[in-house]
Design a protein that fits this description.
This protein is an alpha/beta fold. The chain is built from 13 helices and 17 strands.
Length: 429
């Protein structure tokens, strides 16, 4: 149970809507109404921003639930309280109750369609956090926003991280279409904090907030700046909360932007009564961890894991590696089947070679490694196919190395590296 999804038998439903999750949570006693929440949507940086906020609240003495997806190695990673994973026993008990109710609702309301795996996970998180009497829950949107199971929340504040091209098969072909789905988490008169966005995205988000009379706060209007960053972390200046720099451990300039978005949300909450201490904010940011995102797995040789999986996140990864590494890299790339090979284009100028793989254990269908290899080779890059089973040893034979393309690949490889017990630094989850 500890590594397995208890809702694996559930599938994606053809029926979009919140009727299923609303009915399910009603029968569970509406657990999502029993705690204060922060709702985080967007495309890139959701998990990191959630980790920052949860850590800061925890350092202020609150009991904080954190619900994120996907997991890397252990399904229980999705459900945390003050950093601790749900126990296998608690997960088994709660998921059994949720599964039983989902089956009953499907039988009573066939017009609602079939429950999804994520709906089961969201209900589990709500019930777990309620039972454990959390003060706050930081809840990450799974997919989109408008019809996401987490959107039955009525949060204290909503946060929208950078919106980019992802899941266009479900959210719409244009960036504006994707933005409208993400804007679905904006609630009537609930403040929304928006990270750095492309102009066409910002227009959609602003219009949605105005329509719902939601106070709108944009990072572009805030006096903040990245201070410094390297392979050991970085700092940012956010004068509205403190004159001293705020340190972060997560790597890359984009992580400073994610931290700034979290600080903006805290500023807004502080203006609405949340008591904040600059020292505790600083300690919380510095303590935040988010595995699989520019994560240094080994320093000698330099091996970095990153879950970049769409055009915008590959651009951010390219910028970060260019600033932090200063050498050409060996890339190890595996992607889900719905991705276009062209999204790796930003990486090519930094590539000494690329090893393409298909994870045998991936939770999503894998893109053909041969198709990816041919794409890179046609652009003059040394490209090879490598079996996933060979990666735990091979990645340490090159220096520097970056593994990317899918969080599922990162998770599968993380598990494989730990199983090999090669003596390289462990990856915290």
């Amino acid at each position: 149970m500890n590594k397995d999804n208890p809702f694996q038998k559930q599938r994606f439903s053809a029926h979009l809507g919140l009727e299923r999750i609303t009915e399910l949570c009603s029968r569970l006693g509406d657990p999502h109404r029993q705690f204060r929440s922060i709702h985080i949507g967007g495309t890139n940086g959701k998990g990191s921003t959630a980790a920052y906020l949860a850590s800061v609240l925890e350092h202020h003495g609150y009991r904080v639930g954190l619900f994120t997806s996907p997991h890397l190695v252990d399904y229980r990673e999705r459900f945390r309280i003050n950093g601790d994973l749900i126990s296998a026993e608690e997960l088994a008990a709660i998921s059994a109750e949720v599964n039983e109710l989902m089956s009953k609702i499907e039988a009573e309301f066939p017009e609602y369609g079939t429950f999804t795996m994520f709906e089961g996970a969201a209900a589990t998180a709500f019930l777990y956090f309620s039972a454990q009497n959390v003060d706050w829950a930081v809840i990450e949107v799974g997919l989109g926003g408008r019809f996401d199971a987490t959107n039955i929340l009525h949060p204290e504040i909503s946060v929208i991280t950078p919106v980019g091209h992802d899941h266009v098969d479900r959210l719409g072909p244009t960036l504006a279409d994707v933005a409208r789905e993400k804007a679905g988490i904006i609630k009537s008169r609930v403040p929304v904090c928006v990270s750095e966005q492309l102009p066409e995205v910002e227009r959609v988000l602003q219009a949605a907030a105005a329509d719902r009379e939601a106070p709108y706060f944009s990072l572009k209007d805030v006096d903040w700046q990245p201070h410094k960053w390297n392979l050991f972390g970085g700092e940012l200046i956010f004068p509205a909360l403190d004159s001293h720099p705020f340190p972060v451990q997560l790597l890359g300039r984009h992580q400073l932007t994610n931290a700034a978005a979290a600080l903006l949300a805290l500023q807004v909450l502080g203006e609405r009564g949340l008591r904040l201490n600059p020292k505790l904010i600083r300690n919380g940011l510095a303590a935040a961890q988010w595995p699989g995102r520019l994560q240094v797995v080994s320093r000698d040789p330099l091996v970095i894991f990153d879950g970049a999986h769409n055009r915008e996140s590959f651009l951010a990864l390219t910028d970060a590696l260019d600033e932090l590494v200063h050498r050409k890299l060996t890339f190890v790339i595996g992607m889900s089947a719905d991705k276009n090979p062209s999204i790796i284009e930003p990486l090519l100028p930094l590539a000494e070679r690329i090893l393409f793989t298909e994870s045998e254990n991936s939770r999503l269908g894998a893109k053909s490694a041969a198709e990816l290899r041919d794409y890179a080779a046609d652009r003059g890059i040394e490209a090879q196919i490598i079996a996933f089973a060979d990666l735990p040893n091979t990645i340490f034979e090159y220096d520097p190395v970056c593994v990317c393309g899918s969080l599922y690949l990162i998770g599968d490889l993380q598990a494989a590296v730990l199983k090999e017990n090669r003596g390289h630094p462990s990856i915290k989850t």
